[in-house]
Specification:
Length: about 425
């Protein structure tokens, strides 16, 4: 997985989490179905935004955009409802084309294992095949991947011709053009041509953001290895890079206000909020962040107050005294398995990835535990989620997250005006 959009399940409502996973699995399976098993390695978080945008603009019901997928080890051998259709296929074609470009860049730069001739030769063969396959799938949904490949070729020319002191935005232009074209085509697939212009603008700024964040994140490593970096090459300091990134996030939010969507919630979370979190991962939080996280509609700052109870959530159990003389309330804990039986169950659960990706019963103690991925790979920061993502006051009564603050500059000043 690679990409700047990395939403944590703790910041998504149950409905949005289900939808996010449906698009992620749908992209992976579309890559497999159209291009083979190896192509599934091109699955990435940013690419599935294409699928999300197509579905969000469509007035069709959810059933027409979903299919039931068979058991998968990454889902603990469980079936799931996943995204299908033109949105998933376009996302697959774009992801494959961009993965091909990324591999080709590694080969040309002789990065890591790509410096070895046998590996480089195999990688070139893969990129040629992926170029052909992505072009075929994209043409089936009316998109021309030539704009992506042309952007990649211009990227190299710009980098070679760039002089110190030049604008870093000259370097990001090819990426901006590629993402702009992909975002705009989602309006064509959804039958909403009026959305093409604002989505093109949102895509252009998203491409700029992705390029700048990647450059800022890799700047120290590039300096150590002697690799080319756009910020270093143009003399752009981190303060200016951060300003450009935050301006891009703001511009994406403004462009989304002009987009007509049938279901805005997931798009708003991913493009209006997760982009902001991506900037904070690289540059640190903005100066207003601490105030935003603790502010309530009344203006109080209850630093030590417990989190608000979500709609339908079961209240937390009161504290139960422990120690001699007190009997625990509730069912008795499950009886642990012996070593031999525990090892056998552990092996079975490991083979089906249940230990990694699912809530499961511990193979030895039988206690309920979270999967390893959830315990260790959850990119949720302090999980001070507000209304799942917004942080714009108390949106706990609004149902699905962020519908209450649609169109506002959430977390900018926390004055979203949502009447919750």
């Amino acid at each position: 997985m690679f990409g700047i959009i990395r939403p944590c399940k703790h910041r998504l409502s149950e409905r949005l989490q289900t939808s996010w996973m449906a698009h992620l699995c749908g992209l992976c399976l579309a890559l497999r179905d159209d291009h083979g098993q190896l192509a599934r390695t091109a699955t990435n978080y940013d690419g599935l935004i294409i699928s999300v945008l197509v579905e969000a603009q469509s007035a069709r019901d959810d059933s027409s955009w979903r299919r039931t997928a068979g058991p998968c080890p990454l889902r603990g051998m469980r079936t799931a409802s996943v995204a299908k259709g033109e949105g998933a296929r376009l996302a697959a074609a774009v992801s494959l084309a961009l993965a091909s470009v990324k591999i080709r860049d590694h080969v040309e730069d002789r990065d890591g294992v790509f410096a070895r001739r046998p590996v480089a030769a195999g990688a070139r063969a893969v990129t040629r095949r992926w170029d052909r396959q992505s072009a075929g799938t994209a043409s089936a949904v009316g998109f021309d991947t030539a704009v992506l490949l042309d952007a990649a070729s211009r990227q190299g020319e710009l980098e070679r011709s760039l002089r110190p002191g030049g604008s870093v935005l000259l370097v990001t232009e090819p990426t901006e053009s590629a993402t702009s074209a992909a975002f705009a085509h989602t309006a064509v697939l959804a039958g909403r041509p009026g959305n093409a212009a604002p989505l093109a603008e949102a895509g252009r700024l998203f491409g700029r953001l992705a390029h700048l964040l990647d450059a800022a994140e890799d700047q120290a490593a590039d300096a150590e290895s002697g690799a080319w970096n756009p910020l270093t090459a143009t003399g752009t300091d981190r303060a200016e890079a951060e300003r450009l990134c935050r301006d891009a996030v703001h511009g994406i939010r403004l462009a989304l206000r002009e987009v007509e969507l049938a279901d805005r919630a997931l798009v708003h979370v991913l493009l209006a909020h997760e982009t902001e979190r991506a900037v904070e991962r690289v540059f640190g939080p903005a100066s207003h962040a601490a105030t935003c996280r603790t502010r309530t509609p009344s203006g109080d700052h209850p630093q030590d107050a417990p989190p608000r109870q979500a709609p339908g959530e079961v209240p937390a159990s009161p504290w139960i005294p422990q120690g001699p003389g007190f009997e625990p309330i509730g069912p008795k804990p499950p009886r642990p398995r012996n070593l031999l039986a525990g090892c056998a169950v552990w092996a079975l659960m490991a083979c089906t990835c249940q230990l990694l990706c699912c809530d499961h019963n511990d193979p030895f103690s039988r206690e309920r535990r979270k999967g390893f991925c959830e315990r260790h790979d959850c990119d949720c920061g302090d999980c001070d989620c507000g209304c799942g993502s917004c942080g714009c006051g108390d949106c706990s009564g609004c149902g699905d997250c962020c519908q209450c603050c649609d169109g506002c500059d959430c977390c900018g000043g926390c004055d979203c005006g949502c009447d919750c």
